[in-house]
Amino acid sequence: MKQFLFLFLSLVLLAACGSDTNEEQETSAKAPLFLSVTPTTDTEISAGEQTFVLTFDRNITILSSTVSQITLNGKSVTSAKIEGGASPRLTVTATVPNDAREAALVIPAGIVKTTAGGLAARTELKWNIKQLPAVDPSTFDGLCNPKATPEARSVMEFLKENYGKRQLSGVQSSSSNTLDFVNAVAESYGKHPALAGFDFIYLAFSPTPAGWSWQQNYNDISAAREQWEHNGLVSYMWHWNVPDNEAAYLKCRDEGSTDHMGFYTPGGNGGQGETQFDIREALKEGTWQHECILRDIDEVAGYLQNPQEADIPVIFRPLHEAAGSYTRYNPQGGAWFWWGRYGAEPCRQLYRLLYDRLVNHHGLNNLIWCWTIDVAEGYEKSAKEWYPGDDCVDIVGADIYTDSPALCQRTAYDFMHEVTGGKKLTTVSECGNICNPTAQQQGGAFWSWFMVWPTTGNGGTIDLAGWQANTASYWQEVLQSPCIMNREDMPSLKAL
């Protein structure tokens, strides 16, 4: 009897356990049900890159090969992933277009599922898109220099009129004073960038003897002349090398020595090309530092006089990335260049001194002044403090180095507009990976141009694919985009 009862109870328990197991399997195989989304539907969202977090009633999974089937307004989303690999939350990133009133996110049936194979039904979610005011070029300031040359005014009027229509392509030269990267892009992809960038980085070495590896002669403007004659635009920047100490300066002044020169702050470049030069002392008349910067400014003025005499306007971008990053190198603001080492106020004073010396003292009226910051972590905490003022800035630029070129950088764009109250044109003054021009246009990030920073391979060879996203096919896509204007598309801006 006891044996019978034991057998009976065992069978009952086994049946119960089997029932529980089946129930669990059944439950996990059920279709996951959509519960909620952030931001909530039927609310207003901004154009540009947006992140949507969808929550389901159980853990879900998704195959990477099916992400392209998830669409926003008929176009594949940028990404879709499960938090932690196993979670009830699906995070979707997509570009919300600027030219539509409604955003519709569609996840086809069967894309989202449980590990047991339960397939989610089709999910469609909708939001209203916040409408941007129409781009009105008349709201932008003209050139801050009332004596600007006709050619400079012509370029500025073109940039204003073109704003919001097509973004200009641009590429910085390597350290050479040539069109090396401009021509390399054209040879590889059939289009010349509309904007060619040059750098006074070797000011202290110019002109150098023939045969030197860094031979420079900034009196030679043949590259700038060629770019301008073919309707392209010309830009100059300045990695400003200064002596590390007074002895080095005197040796530079009296003997032409270039020893102990640099532009990085201590700790800013691992000991290479660093300087203790103090901008605060440079702003005081009677100091060797003040004498040094005036000598350098006057030398640059002589080189900039050459394109002025040739009727070539120059977009001038000095003291770039002054604020640096709040998270790199030092806790005082992270400036990696000497002109930003001691904060915003001395740098602003130096920028205004530079403007006054070049414009009012040397009579350089061919310059279009571009002020830039680096869009690194913490930039929004400091950028407004560093802005030198509307009366000496024509264009504001953001140096953007991103591993996510599919994003339009709308957040940075809006912030740059905020810095100037929307009075100035905005541009991507430097970049590594080129941000997708279509995404930018659709997202309402109307950058005036982009400027790719060059990379070189072994032996100084030109490497157009040095940035991860800038593959040959992507270069082709960008340069052939209807959102992009290359040198071949540019009108003549020469004054009659």
**Percentage of residues in helical conformation:** 25-40%
Indicate the CATH class of the largest domain.
Alpha Beta
Number of helices: 12
Largest beta-sheet characterization: 8 strands, parallel
Strand order of the largest sheet: 11-12-13-16-17-18-19-20
- Number of DSSP E strands: 21
At the fold tier of CATH, the topology name of the largest domain is: TIM Barrel
- The secondary-structure class comes to alpha/beta
CATH-wise, what's the superfamily of the largest domain?
Glycosidases
What is the number of domains? 2
CATH architecture annotation of the largest domain: Alpha-Beta Barrel
Rg, rounded, reads: 29 Å
What general form does the structure show?
Answer: elongated
In terms of per-residue confidence, which ranges show pLDDT below 50 for 5 or more consecutive residues?
4-28, 326-333
End-to-end gap:
117 Å
What is the typical, i.e. mean, pLDDT? 87
How is this structure best described in words?
This protein has helices at 2-29, 150-162, 180-189, 222-229, 246-255, 279-282, 288-309, 344-361, 383-386, 410-420, 437-443, 472-479, and strands at residues 34-38, 44-45, 48-60, 71-72, 75-76, 79-82, 87-96, 102-107, 123-129, 167-168, 170-172, 195-199, 233-237, 242-243, 261-262, 314-317, 367-374, 395-400, 425-431, 450-452, 484-485. It is of the alpha/beta class. The protein has two domains: 34-129, Immunoglobulin-like (Sandwich), CATH 2.60.40; 137-489, Glycosidases (TIM Barrel, Alpha-Beta Barrel), CATH 3.20.20. The protein has an eight-stranded parallel beta sheet, sandwiched between helices. A five-stranded mixed beta sheet has the order 2-9-8-4-5, with no helix packed on it. Mean pLDDT is 87; it is low at 4-28 and 326-333.
